[in-house]
Design goal:
By secondary structure, the protein is mainly α. The protein has 9 helices and no strands.
Length: 145
């Protein structure tokens, strides 16, 4: 009898627990990149498509260099310090490309960051993944300002 009661509770409790899982979404947020930053791990694991959609859209805006604020917001993702290789490679690729192809835009965006985030970017760019270090040095992205 006790076994049947435990089984009944087990069968009843498990679905209720699963039903209460909240899926994070930034689709209704006016500032999707900051929403992603605030919910990084949850969004990546529970809403992968939206996670990458937000990042790709933000990266496209950064490449156009139309807004130093948006560039700074994107570069500020360095503060996440994720162990997620997929994100780290994507982020490094965009940051290194921006540094080399549009150093003025890069430096303007960096100037809006905290000293700590600027230092994190310097450390990241000190060991680039996609461009050689000489290219970054030539673009003057590694200088201390």
């Amino acid at each position: 009898m006790t076994r049947k009661i435990l089984m009944f509770l087990f069968i009843l409790i498990i679905p209720l627990g699963c039903a209460s899982v909240n899926t994070v979404s930034c689709s209704n947020s006016s500032d999707k990149l900051n929403c992603l930053k605030a919910n990084f791990h949850s969004l990546y694991h529970n809403n992968y498509t939206e996670f990458w959609s937000i990042l790709h859209k933000s990266a496209d805006e950064v490449k156009q260099c139309a807004s130093s604020t948006k560039t700074a917001q994107f570069l500020g993702l360095v503060a996440i310090q994720s162990n997620n290789a997929e994100f780290n490679e994507f982020f490094s690729d965009i940051v290194e490309e921006l540094c080399v192809s549009s150093p003025t835009c890069f430096c303007t965006g960096v100037s809006h960051l905290s000293d700590e985030n600027q230092q994190m970017l310097r450390i990241m760019l000190d060991t680039p993944l996609f461009f050689d270090k000489k290219s970054l040095e030539k673009a003057r992205c590694l200088t201390n300002k």
